[in-house]
Design a protein that fits this description.
about 220 residues; Rossmann fold; two-stranded antiparallel sheet; 9 helices; about 45% helix; globular; binds zinc ion; nucleotide-binding; AMP kinase activity; cytoplasm; P-loop_NTPase
């Protein structure tokens, strides 16, 4: 299984990715998680990326494309992968296409902007794994503690309301064009084109998981 999860910040990409990667035994390639790991390790890339991420802007295409290229060389990507938060611009999608990285599906999770702010303000994450929870909609068994490791959960630095609003406008301008990009490719008759699936991200986490699993059937 080789797929892209597409959707605005807070659509639930990371939440659903956890189920899909477990079900299909494939790695999750989340450029956001990779960048946050670099920030935590204080690498030169991390120090540079932090400034951009804290404003809600995008890290440069060259850096992201390089990161993903290296990640795809790892042996665990041999039998499939799930991209979460990548590609996010037309040049990133073109880089994937030009490198002939195989894709079966592009799944778009649709959530309106007014629902997103509420989701972000209650989000709590487990930094080491990228697992995310919501204080109200998807609470951990013990408040502020990761279910699996028992580690403390934290709030993401870019989940401030003002930053979320900026991330949404960046999504509208730079990432949303990928909806057209992939849906028209799917209709072009090109045998290499991934199938395009669109589903509503409104409902419970379980309801959306069902929709995603349905979408991944031939
Ligand atoms: P990234 O980490 O990719 O953030 P994002 O795309 O903005 O998406 P989020 O992680 O905020 O949302 P999500 O869809 O994963 O939602 P989640 O499942 O957590 O990127 C961060 C930054 O890194 C970017 O701003 C940029 O600077 C940089 N970056 C990353 N990739 C890049 C790239 N390719 N190019 C350039 N720059 C890049 O859910 C959100 C909340 O909602 C959680 O609290 C969750 O519990 C809750 N929730 C989930 N499902 C439901 C539901 N059904 N009902 C109610 N609540 C729900
Ligand atoms: Zn995410």
């Amino acid at each position: 299984m080789r797929l892209i999860l597409l959707g605005p910040p807070g659509a639930g990409k990371g939440t659903q990715a956890a189920f899909i990667t477990e079900k299909f035994g494939i790695p999750q390639i989340s450029t956001g998680d990779m960048l946050r790991a670099a920030v935590k390790a204080q690498t030169p890339l991390g120090l540079e990326a932090k400034k951009i991420m804290d404003t809600g802007g995008l890290v440069s295409d060259d850096i992201i494309i390089g990161l993903v290229r290296d990640r795809l060389q790892q042996p665990d990507c041999k039998d499939g992968y799930l991209f979460d938060g990548f590609p996010r611009t037309i040049p990133q999608a073109d880089a994937l296409k030009n490198a002939r990285v195989a894709l079966d599906y592009v799944v778009e999770i649709v959530v309106a902007e007014e629902n997103i702010i509420e989701r972000m303000s209650g989000r709590r994450v487990h930094p080491a794994s990228g697992r995310s929870y919501h204080t109200k909609f998807n609470p951990p068994k013990t408040p502020d503690i990761d279910d699996i490791t028992g580690d403390p959960l934290v709030q993401r630095d870019d989940d401030l309301e003002e930053t979320v609003r900026h991330r949404l406008s960046v999504y509208r301008e730079q990432t949303r064009p990928l909806v057209d990009y992939y849906s028209s490719w799917a209709q072009s008759g090109d045998a290499d084109a991934p199938a395009y699936r669109q589903l509503s991200g409104l409902g419970t986490v379980e309801e959306i998981r069902e929709r995603v699993l349905q979408a991944l059937k031939p």
